[in-house]
Structures are given as structure tokens and as C-alpha cells.
């Protein structure tokens, strides 16, 4: 049985970060500290990230962003990402006044997840858990997804997904070493 939820970015309500220094739109919330969450955050000023126990984080830059991870500076260009534990000290800042980032968080209690950037909808991995449209369009069954719209996929059979070239962030199980 297939289950696919389409989440429209325009339907997501902006919410302030716990520290009030940024805004996020939650695509999928992590239930009771278990499972995974996905959101798009806007960084407009230098801000410390909240510490989250027993959680791993992957941040994919939609726009250029500067991070300090445990005092080490990392500058991410669009499409680049950084991984860090929820307990690491992280400070984020926009490179050009305002930056958007895709945040994936997952509990240490579940298998690791990855985010990959795919430029052609025909190359979306069959084991995708979620797909976020960063640019272009994605067709999911009868629906057309636009910038920042997301389809969350669960189950063993996936719905018909197609599209032309674009830029898509794909969440999937991490490759095992």
C-alpha cells in the first residue's frame, strides 16, 4: 500500500525558533523525539542553534550560509550540506542578509538518513522518503509541486512521480559502510 502526503509550502505557517533569532516552516515534525523531521528555515542574523539530545542533523543550504560547528567555520554554497549532532554547538549566519536552509533531523533511535540533491526527476531514488522541490516542478500523480512543495513517501509502492529538470532535495536512508 502506498501513502504519499503532499505538503504545500504556502500552507506552512512560519514559526519563530525557540531562541527567537530565526523562522522555520515545519514540513514534518518529529513525533515525541523519535523518527525524523524536515523543515525550511530562514536565517537573517547570527543565531545559535538549539541543542537537541539524541538527534542528528543535516543542513542543506538553499542559499549560501555560514556555520560555526564547535568553533570551526563552514561556508555552504547552495546545494552543499553539513552534518552534525544535535548536541554540538552550532551558530548559523546568512552570507547575504537572508538565507534559507533545509533542515533534516532524525532520532539516534532510527537508521541514519541522508539528503541528496538531484537535478532530474527521472533520477529520483526509488527508496526516497521525501522529495522537496528546490527549483522547477515535480509531478506527483495528478498534482504539480512547485518551489518548496514536498512529497513525503511511505510504503512499499511509490506513486507516479515525474518532471523535467529541476533541483530536488531527496531524503533517504543513509548508505551503509
Summarize the model shown:
This protein is mainly β and 177 residues long. It has strands spanning 2-7, 15-16, 22-28, 36-43, 47-48, 55-61, 65-69, 72-76, 81-85, 90-94, 99-107, 113-120, 128-135, 138-140, 143-145, 150-155, 161-162, 165-173.
Structure write-up:
With 177 residues, this protein is mostly beta strands. Helices cover 0% and strands 56% of the residues. The chain contains no helices and 18 strands. The strands form 4 sheets. A 6-stranded antiparallel β-sheet has the order 2-3-4-11-6-9, with no helix packed on it. The protein has a 5-stranded antiparallel β-sheet with strand order 1-16-13-18-12, with no helix packed on it. A hairpin with a 2-residue loop joins strand 7 and strand 8. It starts with a strand and ends with a strand.
Range of strand content: over 45%
Radius of gyration: 16 Å
Count the E strands: 18
Mean pLDDT: 89
Task: Indicate the low-confidence ranges by residue numbers.
Answer: none
Approximate shape: globular
Helix percentage range: under 10%
With helices defined by DSSP (H or I, 4 residues minimum), what is the helix count?
Answer: 0
What class would the helix/strand composition place it in? mainly beta
Order of helices and strands: EEEEEEEEEEEEEEEEEE
- For the biggest β-sheet, the strand order reads 2-3-4-11-6-9
Amino acid at each position: 500500500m502506498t501513502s504519499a502526503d503532499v505538503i504545500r509550502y504556502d500552507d506552512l505557517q512560519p514559526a519563530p525558533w525557540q531562541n527567537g533569532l530565526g523562522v522555520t516552516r515545519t514540513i514534518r515534525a518529529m513525533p515525541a523525539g523519535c523518527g525524523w523531521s524536515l523543515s525550511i528555515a530562514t536565517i537573517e542574523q547570527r543565531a545559535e542553534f538549539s541543542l537537541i539530545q539524541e538527534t542528528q542533523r543535516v543542513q542543506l543550504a538553499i542559499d549560501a550560509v555560514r556555520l560555526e560547528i564547535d568553533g570551526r567555520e563552514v561556508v555552504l554554497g547552495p546545494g552543499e550540506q553539513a552534518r552534525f549532532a544535535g548536541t554540538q554547538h552550532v551558530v548559523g549566519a546568512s552570507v547575504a542578509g537572508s538565507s534559507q536552509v533545509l533542515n533534516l533531523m532524525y532520532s539516534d533511535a532510527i537508521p541514519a538518513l541522508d539528503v541528496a540533491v538531484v537535478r532530474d526527476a527521472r533520477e529520483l531514488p526509488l527508496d526516497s522518503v521525501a522529495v522537496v522541490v528546490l527549483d522547477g516542478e515535480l509531478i506527483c500523480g495528478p498534482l504539480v509541486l512547485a518551489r518548496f512543495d514536498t512529497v513525503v513517501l511511505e510504503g512499499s509502492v511509490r506513486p507516479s512521480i515525474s518532471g523535467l529538470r529541476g533541483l530536488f532535495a531527496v531524503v533517504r536512508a543513509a548508505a551503509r559502510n
